[in-house]
Amino acid sequence: MTSGFSAIFWRFFHWGPLTAISIIKSITFMTLYMNAMWWPPNRTFGGFLNQTVFLMLSASTGFNFVMASLTGPKFLPLQWRPKNPEDEQFLQYCATCEGFKAPRSHHCRKCDRCVIKMDHHCPWINHCVGWGNHAYFTCFLAFAVVGCLHATVILCGSLYAGLHRDWYVYYGQYSKATVYLSLWSLVLGVFNVGLAIGVVIAVGMLLFFQVRAIVNNRTGIEDWILEKARHLREGTEDNFQYPYDLGKWKNIRQVASWTCAPIGNGVEWAVAEGCDQFTLTREQLLQKSAKRARTRTYTILKPVSGSWVPLWSQGCRVCLSPPLTDEARIKLDVGDTVRVTRWRKHWLFGEKIFDEPEEPRNGTKKDKKRKQQSEPLPEAHKPPRIRGWFPRQCAVELVEDEDEAEQQQHFNEKKKHK
Fold first, then answer.
1. How many Cα atoms sit within 13 Å of 350 on the Cβ side?
2. Cα–Cα distance measured from residue 199 to residue 152, given in angstroms and rounded to the nearest whole number
3. Measured between alpha carbons, how far is 410 from 267 in angstroms, rounded to an integer?
4. Where is the Palmitoyltransferase DHHC domain (predicted)?
5. How far is 311 from 307, CA to CA, in rounded Å?
6. Positive or negative, the Cα torsion across 362, 365, 366, 369?
7. For residue 67, which of 4, 5, 129, 16 has the smallest C-alpha distance?
8. Which of 94, 97, 108, 122 is catalytic?
9. Residue 95 to residues 78, 151, 300, 340, 386, Cα–Cα distance (Å)
10. What confidence tens digit (pLDDT) does each residue in 338-376 have?
11. What is the 3-class SS of 318-373, one letter each residue?
12. Which pLDDT tens digit goes with each residue over 296-338?
C-alpha cells in the first residue's frame, strides 16, 4: 500500500500535473468568486443553473484529468512474444524490454516501456496517451475547453459590471451594481481571463488533433508512419493501405464507450478488408531497412556539452535553430563515433557507437562457451543506448565501404518494387 501511494505521489509531483491542477483550480475559484457577485446562485433559478453547470464542467475536467494520469496507458508485458513463433519475423524487437513489439505498440523512452497504441507522451498528465486512457484524456480536453469558455464569459461579464459599477450607481441601476472590484480582484480577474483564453486556444488545438485521431483511428505515430510510407512509394504504382481505418463510426466505437474502458486486448485489432494483423508492422520493418540504408557515420571533432542552449560553445546560429522536439541532447567527446539518422541545418540526430570490449586471452570456460555458441552478452555488460541531438559543426562524416554497399543494396531492392 505504501508503494502504491508513493507511485501516485510521484505521478503528480511533476511540473506538468502541478501546473495543470494549479490552472484548473485558479480559474475555478476566481470564477466562483466573481460569479457570486455578478449572478448569485441563491437569487434566481438562472443563476443557480449557471453555477451548477460550471461546477459540473470543472468537476468533470478534474476527474478525467486524474483518471487519465492514474489509469495511464497499458504497457506491453516485458519479454512479450507472439503466440505463433513464425509471426516474429513480422515484428520489431525492443532491446530495452527484451521482447517483440506487438502491432500498434511503440517504446516510450520516458516511460521506458513499450506502450500499447501509443499516441504521445503528455507532460501535463506525466504519462503516455494510449490504449487505456485515450478516452479519459479526450474527455479531459473536451471538458477543459467548454469549462474555460464558460469561465471566460462569467469573468468578462463580472469584470465589465465591476468596471462600470459607478455608472450603474449614478443612473440608479442598483440591481446591476453588485460587483465590487478591489485591486487584487481586478488583477486576478484579468489574469484568469488570460489563463482561460490560453487554455481554450492551446487545449482546443490539442482536442482537434485527438478527435481527428479517433475519427481516423490513427495515432500521431501512425500518422508519421503513413506519411513515410507514401514518401517511400513516390513515383511508383504501389499504394500502401492503412489497415485500421474501418470507417468513421466504426473508428469512433473503437475508443468511445460509456465506461471509457479500452476495447479489445491491445494485441489483436480489427483491420480493413485486404489487410492482416501485420500489414503495418511489415511496413515498419521496410521503413527501418530504408533508415539503415541512409544512416551515416560521423566522428566528433569538437567536444559536445549536451546542453539545450550551447551558446558559449557553439554560437548563436546553433541556438537560434534548434530541432523542434523534446528529444534528448547528448554529450560527446572528441573521437566518439555516432550513427546519424536525421539531419537539420545546424543539428544532427544519432546514436553513439561504443567500442566492443576486448575479451581477455585467458577467459573462463563460460566465456569461451558463450563465444562459441554466439550468445549475446548479459544485460549487465551491455553498454547503454545513447541517442539524441548534437550540433552539426562538431562532427564530420566518415565514408565507409560497408555503408555504400548496404545503401546500394537498398536502392536495388527499391527498383525491383517499381
1. 29
2. 10
3. 31
4. 90-224
5. 9
6. positive
7. 129
8. 122
9. 11, 48, 26, 19, 13
10. 999 888 888 999 988 887 555 544 554 444 444 444 444
11. HHHCCCCCCCCECCECCCCEEEEEEECCCEEEEEEECCCCCCCCCCCHHHHHHHHC
12. 899 999 899 888 888 888 888 888 888 888 788 999 999 899 9
Q: What is the pTM of this model?
A: 0.78
Strand 296-300, strand 337-343: pairing: antiparallel
Name beta bridge partners: 390. 348
Q: Which amino acid is at 209?
A: F
Q: Contact 27/179 with Cβ under 8 angstroms?
A: no
DSSP string, 174-228: TTTTT----HHHHHHHHHHHHHHHHHHHHHHHHHHHHHHHHHHT--HHHHHHHHH
The grid cell for 394 is: 562538431
108 is catalytic: no
Q: pLDDT tens-digit profile of 53-86?
A: 999 999 999 999 999 998 888 899 999 999 888 9
Dihedrals phi, psi of 161, to nearest 5 degrees:
-65, -40
Phi and psi at residue 163, to the nearest 5°: -70, -25
Q: Which amino acid is at 199?
A: V
Confirm if 90 and 84 have CB atoms less than 8 A apart. Answer: no
Residues paired with 166 in a beta bridge: none
SS3 of 122, please? strand
**Residue 7, φ and ψ in degrees, nearest 5:** -65, -40
The cell numbers describing 392, all together, are 552539426
Amino acid at 335: G
Q: Which residue has the cell 489574469?
A: 191
Q: Do 349 and 387 contact (CB within 8 A), yes or no?
A: yes
